[in-house]
From TrEMBL:
A GO biological process held by the record: carbohydrate metabolic process
Comp. bias intervals (Low complexity): 363-376
Biased composition (Basic and acidic residues): 95-105
Keywords (A to Z) from UniProt: Coiled coil
Protein name: Putative zinc-finger domain-containing protein
Domain Putative zinc-finger: 183-212
Keyword Coiled coil: yes
Gene3D superfamilies in alphabetical order: Immunoglobulins
Pfam families: zf-HC2
Length: 824
């Protein structure tokens, strides 16, 4: 796994400075003072440094941190440089340190100025990582401790921030002055064109435009001379701007170059804007006087950095003085946690509350460490594996109910954990009670639990468990003489903090200490005799009437045969509308569980397009509601517990709801889902899926986990789904994996889906197929893919790598459901 960051973030340290922490200020200075000092060119300036720093600290301490975007919680280094140079943290476009002059033509705006303006509109975390990655040219590993995120998280955040900056840049370009509608559409598509995420129709539109093959309407709009409009506007504006700004294919090609080489353009645009310094002064302030900000210089710098990284040399010419750089073991901090909440610097270090990030240290990394020391007044050295949550098992003679508790000397307990213990999920503790006495023993085990840990259920075994209000939970059992009784307890861990779970007690032969691990987007985790079943169906298909007018046979489309096999090429319509019941669409699928099964968990997922081809559904929250008809005849309107919008295209959404009670009452059989909101137009989709975790004594004991990532997979630049899922340590174990994906199309390949390094599904994994019995049952479901795989896995390190990539198509990995057989 990716190791957690070993330092608190700059943002957290700034928060601690506001609380009066000298230690946090010293840590900030230790990180950034070299760059701050490097800008001072005279003895007079150096003498004034202490006063300027004191003023900066006073400013920070007196600021109100009540909303996102407050300057004091943004990147500390550019803010310090701005304060000491007389600049401003805006950012606002500057030219060599001077305010820009009035323009005679308001349309005469440079790309650098638009990038700087777009940068100013980004969320604070995006600005911070773009500053460190693009201006200072730090690696993700170097940025990790500054922002309190893992290296993988930093890489993902930088990619997201770059996409956001590109989109904001294009919006600013469009907003400079009026463009013909055709031009606005072309410009708005250029970001997706460079990323390779456009649907085929839009891809072809942009390609024709860039090649100078635009339609007549586009050509006239793109190439119309502005002079014809000047006379009409002469009186309205002293500059007589054109009614429609000129935009040619050459302009689009220039924008494509800017987007494709964003790293070459960002430093010169952002650095002066952030600090008020010229580019040259910014280089000097960062100690990078030999580095060019041009694309060639950036490429050379990257090459040099990689070369030096390979030899463990200096870091890219930027000197970062980290106070305590020799202290390699420090307490990881949660990105939104509080460093010091009370007591200021008088609070003993051992009492400073901290939280950890949701990542475990990499077990493959050597653990030999230098002796840690502390930064003044700031203890960063608690156990790197996170805080300790201790569970104590107190065994008495079984008459707890009447208040008499006596020890049982002939009993001993052995405790173990068969599977990962998930932060924010559950952990299962196996208990083996041995009676070495000559007579049977009735006993009670009381669970003394820490805050945030509760007893969820007796997961297995012959015991009876009770969780009385206001008292500790306990389980009663009987053990024959000379026998051993096994049972399992499922604990719920409310906190998403990683750490260690310790189970101990006077009769416990050897205390258990297990890692509390984390995985993103966790919905369910448990151990039990039973498995996970995933069903679902599409709610949209080819429109027969409209398609026939275009010479398209929908029967061929649904069979996945012929020329037209994806939703971008055919008109779409809802399946199963029933207006008399208020249902705009519906479809069904059969839930088939073994006899005598009981429902542990059931979650319903649904997805669609809020907007497509200038059509949209009302923004009235209707996409949060769906209708469920269960096999028992009960009709229920379900409200989303959670609704997520797509990270690349926010018009696509995923709703989800806990429907455990509905499925437990409805039982096995056909589930009909209706009223999933989506636009009914060419290129759109709508679908649902139901994931059910069940117990059944006739089946093997399994580890079961469900996640809902709703992550984007696409080509150029490559977006990959990449997760190391914590699982039990097994060798040659049977496993079952279900995956729900949206937007996957036939005809776009290659795609790859690997689990444990083994490829699944060939080179067209997300090809709009759905497994299981359902109605209607089409071969080609036009943007909806629900697949199931039986696997044999080996996980010696306790992780299962899952990867998804696509070279041609955009796909949303929505839900994963995994079960792994455990050794008996």
């Amino acid at each position: 796994m990716n190791p957690a960051p070993i330092l608190p973030s700059d943002r957290q340290l700034v928060g601690a400075v506001r609380s009066g922490s000298d230690a946090a200020w010293n840590e900030l200075m230790g990180r950034h003072e070299t760059s701050v000092r490097s800008m001072l060119r005279s003895r007079k300036e150096r003498k004034a440094l202490a006063k300027r720093l004191a003023n900066l600290r006073d400013t920070i301490e007196n600021e109100d941190d009540t909303h996102e975007g407050d300057p004091a919680i943004r990147a500390f280094r550019p803010r310090a440089l701005a304060a000491l140079s007389g600049g401003t943290y805006g950012p606002t476009p500057r030219a060599d340190g001077e305010h820009e002059q009035e323009r005679s033509d308001p349309f005469d705006v440079t790309d650098d100025e638009l990038i700087a303006t777009a940068f100013a509109l980004l969320p604070e975390p995006w600005q911070t990582v773009l500053w460190h990655s693009h201006v200072e040219q730090l690696t993700a590993a170097e940025i990790s401790p500054l922002v309190g995120r893992t290296t993988n998280d930093v890489t993902e955040l930088v990619n997201t921030a770059e996409r956001g900056l590109v989109d904001a840049f294009l919006i600013e370009y469009i907003g400079v002055g009026p463009l013909p509608p055709e031009c606005e559409r072309i410009v708005s598509l250029l970001g997706g064109y460079v990323r390779g995420t456009l649907p085929p129709h839009d891809q072809r539109l942009v390609e024709r435009h860039l090649e100078g093959e635009a339609s007549v309407a586009e050509s006239s709009a793109l190439n119309a001379a502005p002079a014809a409009h000047n006379a009409a506007n002469a009186e309205a504006s002293p500059f007589a701007p054109p009614a429609a700004r000129r935009h040619t294919p050459d302009d689009s090609r220039r924008l494509v170059e800017v987007i494709a080489s964003l790293g070459s353009f960002v430093p010169s645009a952002i650095a002066p804007g952030v600090t008020g310094l010229s580019v040259e002064a910014q280089r000097q302030a960062l100690g990078t006087t030999s580095r060019s900000f041009g694309s060639a210089g950036l490429l050379a710098a990257r090459s040099d950095r990689f070369r030096r990284f390979a030899t463990f040399g200096a870091i890219a010419g930027i000197v970062i003085a980290l106070a305590g750089a020799a202290y390699l073991v420090r307490q990881p901090f949660d990105n939104d946690g509080t460093l010091i909440t009370a007591g200021g610097d008088d609070t003993p270090a051992s009492q400073v509350p901290v939280t950890t990030v949701a990542d475990e240290p990499d077990p493959t990394v050597a653990t030999t460490e230098p002796a840690p020391t502390t930064t003044e007044g700031l203890d960063l050295r608690p156990q790197p594996s996170g805080p300790r949550s201790a569970v104590e098992l107190v065994v008495t003679d079984g008459i707890r109910a009447i208040g008499l508790r006596q020890a049982v000397p002939d009993l001993t307990l052995a405790v173990s954990s068969p599977a990962p213990i998930y932060a924010g999920g559950t952990g299962t503790i196996d208990v083996a009670v041995t009676n070495s006495g000559a007579a049977a023993a009735d006993a009670t085990v009381e669970l003394l639990l820490p805050n945030g840990v509760s007893l969820e259920a007796l997961a297995a075994g012959d015991a009876a468990c009770t969780d009385p209000e206001g008292d500790s939970p306990f389980c009663t059992f009987s053990v024959e003489a000379g026998a051993t009784l096994d049972f399992a307890l499922r604990l719920r861990l409310e906190s998403s903090t990683v750490g260690r779970l310790v189970v101990e007690g006077d009769l416990v032969t050897e205390p258990l200490e297990a890692a509390i691990v984390a995985t993103s987007d966790l919905v369910h985790s448990s151990v039990g005799t039973g498995g996970v079943v995933t069903i679902g169906n599409s709610l949209m298909t080819c429109d027969d009437t409209a398609a026939a007018e275009l010479g398209i046979d929908c029967a061929d489309v649904r069979a996945g045969a012929g020329e037209f096999v994806n939703r971008w090429d055919v008109p779409m319509e809802f399946i199963g509308p029933a207006p008399q019941y208020g249902i705009v669409n519906s479809s069904s699928a059969v839930l088939d569980l073994p006899d005598a099964s009981s429902i542990v968990s059931a979650h319903l997922y649904w997805s669609g397009d809020l907007e497509e081809r200038q059509q949209s559904i009302p923004d009235d929250g209707s996409n949060e509601l769906v209708t469920v008809l269960a096999p028992n005849g009960e009709v229920t309107q379900v409200v989303a517990d959670r609704l997520s919008l797509g990270d690349i295209d926010a018009t696509q959404y995923l709703g989800s709801a806990d429907v455990t009670d509905i499925v437990a009452a409805g039982g096995t059989g056909s589930y009909l889902i209706g009223n999933v909101q989506s636009v009914e137009v060419q290129g759109s989709y709508a679908a649902w899926s139901l994931v059910v975790v069940y117990d059944n004594d006739a089946e093997p004991r399994r580890h079961r986990v469900v996640t809902r990532p709703f992550e984007w997979v696409a080509p150029q630049p490559r977006f990959e789904y990449d997760v190391d899922l914590p699982v039990p340590v097994v060798a040659g174990a049977d496993a079952h994996l279900s995956i729900v994906a949206f937007e996957g199309e036939r005809g776009f390949r290659p795609e790859a889906f690997t689990v444990g390094g083994e490829p699944l599904g060939g080179d067209a994994v997300f090809d709009s197929t759905i497994s299981g019995e359902r109605d209607p049952s089409y071969d080609n479901n036009l943007g909806v893919d629900i697949d199931a795989y039986d696997l044999v896995i080996d996980t010696a390190d306790g992780t299962l790598p899952i990867r998804a990539t696509s070279e041609k198509d955009g796909v949303r990995i929505a839900v994963l459901a995994l079960s792994v057989d455990l050794a008996s």
